[in-house]
Amino acid sequence: MVRFENVGMRYGLGPEILRDVSFTLEPGSFHLLTGPSGAGKTSLLKLIYLAERPSRGAIWMFDREIAATPREELPPLRRRIGVVFQDFRLLDHLTVFDNVALPRRVMGEFEGDYRAEVEELLSWVGLGNRLNAKPATLSGGEKQRVAIARAVVAKPELLLADEPTGNVDPEIGARIMRLFIELNRLGTSVLIATHDQRIMERVPAMRIFKLTEGRLTSANANEIAIAGAKRA
Amino acid sequence: MNPAAPSGLMPADSASGATLHTIVAVMSFLACLTLGAVLTLSRLASEWTEGLSGSVTVQLLPSPQISPEDQLNEALRLVRQWPGIFSAKALSRGEASKLLEPWLGEGNVLDDLPVPQLIEVTLTPGQPVELAGLGRALADGVPGAQLDDHQRWNQELASFAASSEAVGWAVLALIAVATLAIVIYATQAGLQAHREIVEVVHMIGARDVFIATEFQRHFLWLGLRGGLIGLTLAAITLLGSSFFWDSREAPVGAQYLPQLVTSPFHYIWLLFVPAAIAGIAMATARMTVLRVLGRMP
């Protein structure tokens, strides 16, 4: 589904943020991306959701080599990816319903085509009674759930989430994680970038990518838990 | 509870939108007033030249060789039988006083002045008149008679009208360029304020054309609303000035100044101003969004 080969990235003429990053995301997989602040987690996610270009190396997305893909053919690839941004990036002048429905709208669908699904999805994330609310009136946890609903409304094959539990209390965080696990069971590949060690305890079977100073290593959650126990 | 119909991607009442509205309305107001003034100048230029070229004047200076009554009758007879003359009418003392009133004031001033008797001659429209021959015939046949064909006045007025009209068009062109620059700048500033929307919609898979269409529609309506507000204010100003000019409160002598826009046909021309401004705003929004998107992967 996603393959990176020796990918490097830098912003402008600055230092390299990512160095020789290579990994593969298989369909239906569940991955965690960890690492200290400034290690390059958000930059790596931006490369995956095609918001940035690599400085070197090759990226394959859904069997297409991105560097060789014409720009006008990228939007259909982006639609196969759902993104939960760290700062939500909800459009403040749109209602909860319109924010969540946005990906369906840009696909050219009419409201009648998606209304029932959006309402059902919002009920599923516990916001069935806030359809007409504006983001400014929502709590951090509610905004997070709207952002998640928007990310999954078009049934993406890959879901990316940047610190999805960073702005919410532990109870909401646990609820959001259950949501991701449920989506993964339904066939969506999931990659979550987080600092939150508690997430590893909740999903012990997942693979974990660790970014340190722009370099990526991979391990099983159990291995990391054992290593942590030994250090303790 | 069902949600309302999908909102536009752009906020309908943002602060940048209000600023752009105001700027567009002001520029539309100025452009409409300038266009109104240019149209008025154009109309006046035609009226002045047409009015003067359609008439001539015969002056009868007192002469010891002929009595004033015979002089007038002979001149009228000669003029009326000349080919291409539509009518000839002797101005009464009262009518001559009326003509000179703005300069000399009211009263029996003419009684003390040697003002010549005037004959107003109207030419038949579209028919050539041998004015030089008429002048000679009058000079030869009626002592003290002189023909004034307004040639000098006509040339000077035509030249003045053409210059005024050219200045008017130049001012209108400057206003148009300023409007264009300000609308482009304000539209770009408005788009900059909404860059976040462009980025989010781009990243969730919208095609460039979809985003550009949403933005250009928003700015088309914004430009049209602002333009119509400016047009309405300009129309009120022009109509108000017409009523004021006609009213008793108008300053002395105002009736001799030209009124701004009088023809309904001119108001139709003014409708092009908001339409042009809306078109500029729409095109700018489209080009700017496509340029911003072109820099994104």
Descriptive account of the structure:
The complex is a heterodimer of chains A (232) and B (297). By secondary structure, chain A is an alpha/beta fold. Chain A folds into 2 domains: 2-80 and 157-231, Rossmann fold; 91-155, no CATH class. Chain A has 8 helices and 10 strands. In chain A, the strands form 2 sheets. Chain A has a 6-stranded mixed β-sheet with strand order 6-7-8-3-9-10, sandwiched between helices. In chain A, helix 3 crosses helix 4 and helix 3 packs parallel to helix 5. The radius of gyration of chain A is 18 Å and the shape is globular. Chain B has 297 residues and is α+β, with helices and mostly antiparallel strands. Chain B folds into 2 domains: 15-49 and 155-294, no CATH class; 62-143, no CATH class. Helix content of chain B is 66%, strand content 8%. Chain B has helices spanning 15-53, 68-80, 93-104, 131-141, 151-193, 195-203, 208-246, 264-270, 272-294, and strands spanning 55-60, 85-90, 117-123, 145-148. Chain B has a 4-stranded antiparallel β-sheet. In chain B, helix 1 (15-53) packs antiparallel against helix 8 and helix 2 packs antiparallel against helix 4 (131-141). The radius of gyration of chain B is 31 Å and the shape is elongated. Residues 1-6 of chain B have low confidence and may be disordered. The interface between A and B is medium-sized, with 34 and 26 residues.
